[in-house]
Known about the structure:
The complex is a heterodimer.
Chain A: E1 5-7, E2 10-13, E3 19-24, E4 31-37, E5 44-50, E6 53-56, E7 65-69, E8 75-79, E9 88-95, E10 107-108, E11 112-116
Parallel strand pairs in A: 2-11
Antiparallel strand pairs in A: 1-3, 3-8, 4-5, 4-9, 5-6, 7-8, 9-10, 9-11
Chain B: E1 4-5, E2 10-14, E3 19-21, E4 24-25, E5 33-39, E6 46-52, E7 60-61, E8 64-69, E9 74-79, E10 88-96, E11 104-107, E12 111-116
Parallel strand pairs in B: 2-12
Antiparallel strand pairs in B: 1-4, 3-9, 5-6, 5-10, 7-8, 8-9, 10-11, 10-12
Amino acid sequence: EAGVAQSPRYKIIEKRQSVAFWCNPISGHATLYWYQQILGQGPKLLIQFQNNGVVDDSQLPKDRFSAERLKGVDSTLKIQPAKLEDSAVYLCASNPRGGTSSVDEQYFGPGTRLTVT
Amino acid sequence: AQKITQTQPGMFVQEKEAVTLDCTYDTSDPSYGLFWYKQPSSGEMIFLIYQGSYDQQNATEGRYSLNFQKARKSANLVISASQLGDSAMYFCAMREGQHTGYSTLTFGKGTMLLVSP
C-alpha cells in the first residue's frame, strides 16, 4: 500500500511570495489533515477534511492560508503572502475514518520543509 | 493550559538499556486516546503505540510499552533494550472528540532521545 505522498519536499521563497503544497493521501482514506510543525515543536493542526468537507479549520490563519480537497482525494495548501514565521515543515496525514474508533491512527507523509527568507 | 506536556526536552540512554519518556495530559473528554509517534531526522512521523482511555491493560507493541496511569493523567512511553536506531524525536499526542464523529489530535513538544553505543 502506497503511503501519503507530498510535494515538493523542500521550498525556499521570499516573504510576500506565494507557495502551494500538494498532498495525495492513502487510497480510500476519508480524512485528511494538514499540520504545521515549527522547528523544535510538535505538529499543530491547521485544517482537517472529512471527504470533501472541512470539519476543523479553527487554527488556520485564513487571511493568508487556504486549503482545498478536490473530489475527496488530493489536497492543496496555499500560503499567500508568506511571512517569515511561516517557515516550518508542513505535514499531511490521513486516516481511514475520522479517528473515532479504536486505534485508527493517522498516517503521515514525509512533509514539505518551507523556508521563507 | 497545555493539553499535552512532555517535560523532558532531551534524554540520553545507552544501548540495550531501558528508557522512559514522560507524558502528561489534560482533558475533560471521558473518551480519548493517547498515541506515541517517533520522528527520525528524515522527518516522517511513525506511529508506535496507542492507549484508549477505557483500555484496562497497558498497551504493548514489541519493545514499546505505555505506562498508563489514568488518575494521574500520565501516559509514559517505555522503550526496552534501546537500539541506536531509536535515536529520534518522540511525540506524545492525545485524540479527543471521538463522540462528535470526528476527532482532533494534539501533540506535545516532543522529547529528543539519543542512544549511545
